[in-house]
Design a protein that fits this description.
single chain; about 170 residues; mainly alpha
Amino acid sequence: MATTRDFRRYKFASDRIDRCGRYIADESYWRLYAVENTIRIVINSVLTAQLGQNWWPVVLNPNLARNIQRFRGQYANRPRHASPGRHDIYLVFLSDLNQILRIQSNQLRPVIPDVDRWIARLEGIRLPRNLVGHMNFPNYYDRERISDAYERLPALLSKLRDRGIPILIP
């Protein structure tokens, strides 16, 4: 099978852009989608167990609250567009989720002893996630970091199950 390379390094050809798009979707996008949404679920599950159903206002900082309110307003002004989700956690970026993990690590560590490794792992895919999200081409190293984070999700979810934490979709 031929290797797909970044279309921007070659003379313009629309089929090359198509191949790059399919390749990034098949290689990276779906894994990032799974990682980011699983982290949302893990945060919700653990903090619900540790702090109760109303954990979100406890962990929300004022800057993030303003951003969320702005995003909610944008969606409210365009009701034909799909909603990002009922819970505000779907309106935050991977960097925000990582900040929640870092700030709430004392709540998470009893369930996820390696929470610091997860923080580092997610920080390691933050820039590649932005590349993919802005329709750019991550390199081999970036794709491997994304794959590594994805492959570790089952073990992360097992930690919750092993400690009797219900897995709750926000």
